[in-house]
TrEMBL record:
Superkingdom as given in the UniProt entry: Eukaryota
Protein's recorded name: F-box domain-containing protein
Residues covered by the F-box domain: 175-221
UniProt cross-references to SUPFAM superfamilies, sorted A to Z: F-box domain, RNI-like
Amino acid sequence: MRIWCCLCFGEEEDNNKGYKSMKDRILGNNGEELPDDNPAFDWRSVFDGVDIVGNVSVGRNEEIDFDMNWLSSEVEARNGNYCGGERMLNVNLNLGLSGEASSSSTVHKEETDCDTCSKRPKVNSFSLDWDNHLLQETSYLCPMNEGGGDVSLSNLLGATDDEGKDNDISKMEDLDVRMDLTDDLLHMVFSFLDHIDLCRAASVCSQWRAASSHEDFWRYLNFENKQISSDQFEDMCRRYPNATTINLYGTPNIHPLAMKAVSSLRNLDALTLGRGQLGETFFQALTDCHVLKSMTINDATLGNGIQEIPIYHDSLRLLQLVKCRVLRVSIRCPQLETLSLKRSSMPHAVLNCPLLRDLDIASCHKLSDAAIRSAATACPVLESLDMSNCSCVGDETLRDISQTCANLRVLDASYCPNISLESVRLVMLTVLKLHSCEGITSASMAAISHSYMLEVLELDNCSLLTSVSLDLPRLQNIRLKLVLQKQESLTTIALQCPNLLEVDLTECESLTDSICEVFSDGGGCPVLKSLVLDNCESLTVVAFCSTSLVSLSLAGCRALISLELRCPYLEQVSLDGCDHLERASFCPVGLRSLNLGICPKVNVLNIEAPQMASLELKGCGVLSEASINCPLLTSFDASFCSQLKDDCLSATTSSCPLIESLVLMSCPSVGCDGLLSLHSLPNLTYLDLSYTFLVNLQPVYESCSRLKVLKLQACKYLTNTSLEPLYKENALPALCELDLSYGTLCQSAIEELLACCTHLTHVSLNGCINMHDLIWGFTGDQLSHIPSISISPHGSSLGELHLPNELPKRLLENLNCVGCPNIKKVVIPMAQGFLLSSLNLSLSANLKEVDIACYNLCILSLSNCCSLESLQLECPRLSSLFLQSCNIDEEAVEAAVSRCTMLETLDVRFCPKVRNIFDANNMPYFSTEHDEVAGCMSQFETHFQQPSPIVRQ
């Protein structure tokens, strides 16, 4: 249970329970209780989908978090290895892997085939995490040596050719806790485990030890950022000579470890190094590692930093030297296909890689223009070149590259200010990225047009670009972003791009309305689907007629006055910030929802949307003409459309017969004729007429027979007899929620409504100044004579409760009377409010007496009822009681909650008379003579009055 009072005490979480039956079935435990020291371990997660007789029904392909602590405790318990509840072990796995937490290296290329690097053939992905808990966790699990000596990894997973290992195996076999699993099934289960859990599994029995040491599980050895010594690494290489993938990034002294890897692991396929220094001898030794296909070196110094480093290898296909420090590098790899020198500091690079297809030299600031030209032209089959942020590159280098690399398809020359592309012909390009290239002007468009196979063109922030004229039949994506700094502006665009799919012209502030012709039918982009014109502040009259456009964004076009869209397949439109839009036409469009509430000046609206289901005009206060033809419309919000008249509402209900929710809040121009037209909406269940000038509700009673929710907030012109048809004539028989907040109905009308309209489940009477005492059915003196309610001791379902037949049975579940200033007394007997589950009387400043007996009441709020003096509760299901800022004393609170045995939250913040809640140790408690209250209070989380305003539930 929790008591709110601005002090926060953490809640305890229940430990997982219920594993005993599972242990008994698997281990054959004959009813004896075995210790379970690790409640975090979920045995069931291991064999999820695998039954005990060996049938497999695993239907998911994911890693399982397999913790073997519990199973190991079972083994040790059976072997008598418990000493006073603690294990006295001294274990050394001969790994000593303590140090920093694992972190990823800066670059790990996605091109590497993860399946071939996986340590197991049955797992999609694998990441070994040798964290600094390995030593402790494995020592916690391993069986104890009789001599108290160390148990090394070799003793745990090695062969049985020495005497110590044989002894260990025999001890494990003597435990006789082998699972009834076939080797194939065990292999399948273990394929989901990482190396930490495999070590734990090895301590269970000899079968599990043999299975966990299978080489399939140890082909990928990841020591990233681990403090592993040369001896430890050498032992691992000796133990698993068939390992194919090694990650030594961030290990101390990477050179000797790398040397050991390439010299002893003859099947090494992928190697990752970094954060250290690699000597020249390592690169010389690479030639002995014949099957190496992939090598990544990140953030390292190659050689002594002032010498040439040769990298010669006949089988290498992927090489990444990222952020490396070296004077000169010479690469001769006849099979190399992908090379990255990104962010490296070498001023010279010599390449002899005839099959190289992908070259990344981005941000190699020290590479000269001549060095880049020499490197790229030495790769005749090059297909992708990233030379972004190489500021020295010019058009002459690009011309040479275009002549030598005839197959170049992808070029990223962003942030290269010396490139203008004049006289450059890159005929085979499909992707061209030229972000922030100051040399790109309108004259560059002629050169770009020769790349007739272009599919993606990016020209963001090319600030000297004033016009674009392109004839690119295959172009699918073009992005133009203009940032003006007292420079000429892009004013015209001419495109002939029959395959262009996306255009982004964000912040092209000088584009004129003629741009609409370019992207309409017949404008040269017949299959255009997405168009972004955000912050194009010169657009005033926009009209698009397109049979292909699916998405249109005009956000921030503040000068836009008129919008006309004839786009039958348009599904998305953004008009954020178009706050000067006056006329809008969507005829026809494929929109499913539309929000024009952000366009407060719209006064003329036409919508024809066959698929539209939701329309929001909230805030269109000057909208006077509206034609809405949306046959599938179900939700219509016209809040604050003060000029919306009856004729418009009638036309809308006639053309949109499926409307279920209609909000006409603050629509004072809607009258009886408009409300009578609601008979055209047979599915109408939600109607909001709040803040209107309605005098009677007869049109609603006649037109909305299926109405379930009716909101009439602040309808101050309704008479006291306006609601009589609800409870006298059974009008609106389906109505279950009624909101009369801030109304002027008299006390007697409210009492009759609550007493006789028994089918209501939710009623709101917030701020009703004419509401006085809330006494249901009986006065306080008569309350003691109400017949008792029989509740079965074996349950609490409604079928076991017996109500007196002579008392009315209300369906009310939720009653809100917030801020009713004249309520002084509330009396609700059990039978009258039997189904009431939530009662809110907050901010009722004159409320003095509350006497409530409600069996199903769960939430009661009396916060800021500063006059409250008497509180009597008989609410066995009450879970939350809010008494914030009340003057009620502590004894009254204790007495009130004495029968609320399910109370979880009690808010007594800022209650001046509730103070004695802390003992000398400042621990929460209630000093009371009532055993019931003491038992109840033991569940509380207390939050009592303190300076901090923080409230936590």
